[in-house]
């Protein structure tokens, strides 16, 4: 079940790993590029506006040989020009990206996701609408592209107990006040469809 906090002006949703799998399958049923975009947001913590940047040339195995890293040019939460950071990529996502890039014949400099930010957001919205219709579960309609990043951050900080400073670095948050909302266990809404 999608966890929801609808107490404020914005409905916030947290997806479980299983729900993220379901969303990836749904979006991937129409196009592999869309699935890669959802994986970059939900498994790697990218913002929708950052998804169209990474390419094969930005992906590398860490120097100590234990994790995939990739360069992201993302939002500077202090304002100003885009900020460059290294983000984590799980092995399964790296495998998918490598296969996808080979299948599509992408040059090392070509972005994996060649779409605008509004398109990426629309892909997520279309997929959650399909899931909501098929499952007759209205709560899915509240899920947004940002909820994928929210789910990723909460998973790592709350469930895996990853250090806040590490999460700030890989997630692109410049100060503690920007990441603090992710530190709490999400509320479960009693709202019924």
From TrEMBL:
UniProt xrefs under Pfam families: Phage_integrase
GO BP term (any one): DNA recombination
Organism placement in taxonomy: Archaea, Methanobacteriati, Methanobacteriota, Stenosarchaea group, Halobacteria
Highest taxon of the lineage: Archaea
Keywords, in A-Z order: DNA recombination
Record carries keyword Glycoprotein: no
Keyword Cell membrane: no
Domain (Tyr recombinase) ranges: 10-193
Protein name per Swiss-Prot or TrEMBL: Tyrosine-type recombinase/integrase
